[in-house]
Amino acid sequence: MYFIAVIVGLVYVVLLVLSGREKAEDIAGVQKPFYKIAGFLYQMSIGRKIPGENQVKKDIVSLNPGGVSDKLLRDYYVKKTALILEIILTGTIASVLVSANTRRSSAVPEEGILLRGFPDEEKSFSLTLTGKDHYGLNLKPYILDRTEAELYFMDFKEKIREIMPGENEALNRVSRDLVLETQLDGFPFVAEWSSDSPDIVNTLGEVIEVEEPVSAVLTMTVFYEDWEWSEDFEVTIVPPDLTEEEKREKEIQKLLDHWEENTRMEQNFSLPRMYNEEILSCSAFVGGRLNLKLEYS
Description:
- Helices cover 39% and strands 21% of the residues.
- By secondary structure, it is of the alpha+beta class.
- The chain has four domains: 1-107, no CATH class; 108-139, no CATH class; 164-241, Sandwich (Immunoglobulin-like), CATH 2.60.40; 244-296, no CATH class.
- The longest helix is centred in the first third of the chain and has 37 residues, at 70-106.
């Protein structure tokens, strides 16, 4: 593991040196080096066939009706590449920390020394002192320092990003409910969610059906000890991809709901007679449910 970590570190150093002339004025903080490396790699790929490029162009066109420009295409690939580079490096660092802790934990402790769990494992011990008395001890997890916690947070947010789409194709094509986790195994964090468009997607990840694409931002705030971090996730809610039969069922349901709401002042509820060019009729009650059938006129 340590050998792989050294190789990864050397590769990143070389790429960082080679990308020294790349610009990333809009990016600040620890992400800037990743964007500079990603920009350098993109420049190296110009003129070569990039797998999936045609689908990427289609997605960009769907979100930007004005068409695909070189800047939009570059921004897309640079952002994705920077994210991948960030995941690789943080994953490598986290693996080294876990490996070091595992090796430390697997060692036989000296007499009178107990090892804490890392980072969210609480250990219980039964102690016998002076050969007579028995005591119980719950050893709380090791508390990360700020640097360690930030590394774990970077890994945490990427795992959240992987889980978040749920049954959706991607975060830029959401038509079903999202998965907004507040805790993950192996991490000592607690997360809270907020939405800038709760009428479209709420903090439980529930998505409201839309007629045309709508953008929203979900913000995850993560807490650990006295620190907190925030991360924004941009999502695009799109109309569901329905079959013709599903569309018809949906329209009939809307018709029934509308009809019921507008006849609240009438004691007897009469079913609507027509749906488009079809006759809507009631066949029978079965198991307490009303069976409807469509007959072409």
